[in-house]
Specification:
Blueprint (H helix, E strand, L loop, with lengths): L4 H10 L2 H10 L6 E5 L6 H7 L4 E3 L6 E4 L9 H4 L3 E3 L6 H6 L6 E4 L6 H10 L4 E5 L3 H13 L5 E4 L3 H7 L4 E7 L12 H7 L4 H18 E11 L8 H10 L3 E4 L8 E2 L15 E3 L9 E8 L22 H11 L11 E5 L2 E5 L11 E4 L1 E7 L2 E4 L1 H5 L9 E4 L4 H7 L11 E7 L2 E8 L4 E3 L10
Parallel strand pairs: 5-6, 5-8, 6-7, 8-9, 19-20
Antiparallel strand pairs: 1-3, 1-4, 2-3, 7-16, 9-13, 10-13, 11-12, 12-13, 14-15, 15-17, 17-18, 20-21, 21-22
Helix pairs in contact: 8-10
Pfam family, one: RsmF_methylt_CI
Organism: Anaerobacterium chartisolvens
Keywords: Cytoplasm, Methyltransferase, RNA-binding, S-adenosyl-L-methionine, Transferase
Length: 461
């Protein structure tokens, strides 16, 4: 691999000779591949019983595993069922450091494509408020798809600048993940494009963006809350020096030490003018761990009196909208009787679209919202059309009418391609499953099963 000359010179000046040579040699070795089991849909124990892949635990994450090069988990039907998310092993660390819990308010500020978002959502177990934001409207599309694929019900997806969000969520969040845009040096082995983009987006430009982001993040975090800051670069300017500078200008914060496992290394005070506080941060190096380069810091905002006014939740609630009767009729015919959608939270109808959310949220007027909570479906003329997002967020036992295919069956292959299946059955909506895990909707006609699998999700072969 050909690495930028400026990068080589920089790392050579920062590191001892032996370590520098080990780092450079690591680029000639094979990369590592990982997946994280989606515990919103299946437990780790249950997935290991049915896994079609040989898996090895990743040391720094509870539900992450290495799989062998040459395996194709993205082509297996269990991927379409959202049982796992494919993710570079080191990139799973920040989501683990978040340690999300049910009922918390969490912001994933630079969220696309969504790997860390769905990891956080798994810990929240459908309770609390998860705001997933990305400033790129194109990247938000992938973020929404991955959130829906993994069955996340309590996420609001926004497409905003940190400044706009800070105005809508003053001291609102318990935890904020900043997986900051960075120079990407840690991804050189994984992605050749990262080498090319490094020439355009070097650490000086990235560190300026990171600083602007952190200034806004402080405004959105409640006293006693946590910032999880991470990058996929080696640059001290974007890592230890960034944390040191933030601490020096924000004395209301302290570093919470992250435990080191599996070859992880502590942050280097010598790269931050000797600031010992950064020793509580961690680094993942490709020559020390089975993964790519990453940095993570956990910062706690010291407890104190909140300066923000108590937030006023939106009064939007569509429980009394007459169109809900169409949804209730659909639910009575198709959903389990003990599945009380909206019962613990509230419904919201935006245009003709129906959403559910576990609790009330702040007024979001002026904020670009790309997805609001659990998208259930759309109202037509005297009817309700359920969404794909609804069915993939449900378990088989939540549904009255299902059809189940084996993962290696021809019928399942045809369904995932969007083809009509010539099958007899009782008329009506059916949830299609693979070995008991939901994939999508179909509609049973007289002698055929009409395919309702979304076009943008279908397989080409």
């Amino acid at each position: 691999m050909r690495l930028p000359e400026d990068f080589l010179n920089k790392m050579s000046a920062l590191m001892e000779k032996d370590e520098y040579e080990s780092l450079i040699q690591s680029y000639e070795k094979p990369r590592y591949y990982g997946l994280r089991i989606n515990t919103l849909k299946i437990s780790v124990e249950e997935f290991l019983k049915i896994s079609p892949f040989e898996l090895e635990p990743i040391p720094w994450v509870r539900d992450g595993f290495y799989y062998r090069e040459g395996e194709s988990p993205g082509k297996h039907p269990y991927y379409n069922a959202g049982l796992y998310y494919i993710q570079e092993p080191s990139a799973m660390l920040p989501g683990e450091v978040v340690d999300s819990q049910p009922g918390e308010r969490i912001l994933d500020l630079c969220a696309a494509p969504g790997g860390k978002t769905v990891q956080i959502a798994a810990g929240m177990k459908g309770r609390g408020i998860l705001v997933a934001n990305d400033i790129s409207s194109d990247r938000v599309k992938a973020l929404i798809k991955n959130i829906e694929l993994c069955g996340v019900r309590n996420a609001i997806v926004t497409n905003e600048t940190p400044q706009k969000l800070a105005g809508a969520f003053p001291e609102f969040f318990d935890k904020i993940l900043v997986d900051a845009p960075c120079s990407g040096e840690g991804m050189f082995r994984k992605d050749q494009d990262a080498v090319k983009s490094w020439e355009k987006f070097k650490s000086e430009k990235c560190s300026a963006m990171q600083w602007d982001i952190l200034e806004q993040v402080d405004k959105m975090l409640r006293p006693g809350g946590y910032i999880i800051y991470s990058t996929c670069t080696f640059s001290p300017e974007e890592n230890e020096k960034m944390i040191s500078a933030f601490l020096s200008l924000n004395n209301g914060y302290e570093v919470v030490e992250i435990s080191t496992v599996g070859g992880m290394e502590r942050g280097r005070p010598g790269w931050a003018e000797g600031n010992q506080a950064v020793a509580g941060t961690v680094r993942l190096w490709p020559h020390r761990v089975k993964g790519e380069g990453h940095f993570a810091a956990l910062l706690r905002k010291k407890a104190g009196e909140s300066r923000a006014a108590a937030y006023i939740p939106s009064d939007s609630d569509s429980r009394n909208d007459v169109r809900l009767n169409f949804f209730r009729s659909f639910a009575e015919e198709n959903l389990s009787e003990d599945l009380n959608i909206g019962g613990g939270g509230y419904f919201d109808i935006k245009g003709s679209n129906l959403y559910a959310f576990p609790e009330r949220v702040p007024e979001l007027k002026g904020i670009r919202v790309a997805k609001f909570g659990w998208y259930l479906g759309e109202f037509g003329k005297n009817r309700f059309e359920p969404s794909h997002s609804m069915v993939v967020s449900l378990n088989k036992q939540d549904l009255k009418n299902t059809i189940d295919f084996a993962c290696d069956s021809k019928e399942l292959s045809s369904y995932l391609k969007g083809e009509t299946l010539m099958l007899e059955g009782e008329k009506g909506m059916k949830a299609v499953c693979v070995n008991g895990y939901t994939l999508g909707w179909a509609k049973q006609m007289d002698y055929m099963l009409k395919n309702l699998y979304p076009k943008g999700w279908r397989r080409m072969s």
